[in-house]
Amino acid sequence: METPDITSTNQTRDPLAPRTGLPWRPKLPSQSVKDIAVCPSCSALKKDGQWIWGSAPSDSRRQLCPACRQIREGKPAARILIRSDVILPRRQEIFALVRNIEAIETQRSPLQRIVTISQRQRSVSIDTTDEHIARRIALAICKMTGATLSTRQQRECMTMAVS
Ligand SMILES: [Zn+2]
What we know:
Elements: H1 30-35, E1 37-38, E2 45-47, E3 50-52, E4 61-62, H2 66-73, E5 78-83, H3 84-87, H4 91-108, E6 114-119, E7 123-128, H5 131-145, E8 149-154, E9 157-162
Parallel strand pairs: 1-4, 5-9
Antiparallel strand pairs: 1-2, 2-3, 5-7, 6-7, 8-9
Helix pairs in contact: 4-5
Bound molecules: zinc ion (ZN).
Zinc ion binds next to helix 2.
């Protein structure tokens, strides 16, 4: 499978290529192909040190992406705790909002994901692979419900309380 070279700014045309109107793109040297890794779990690509969505050459090396590793090991980077009295009156609306933000953020980056959503005694907790997506979700819920956000770092996990 051809991988589009998004980093190339080379607009030179191959004089022998048919006139398609598309700029000529040189084939990636084999060294670059070896530098591309693909996550065996979610198919994200690691290219130039960045994890992105795309299609990888079939001979790419396999490497679990940080988000899939966190999900596998159950080690979220952030946890949102939404107090029951905030979530209960608008449960459907809040979950739709959460799923909408997840779709946008995960499409932008494979490393922005929700790990789990779980019901606790007095709250709903949402674990995420990154602080950025957690903050977006927490702030959007606060904006919708008028709740307030307080954050604290607990070991390797940022906890965001919405109450
Ligand atoms: Zn992955």
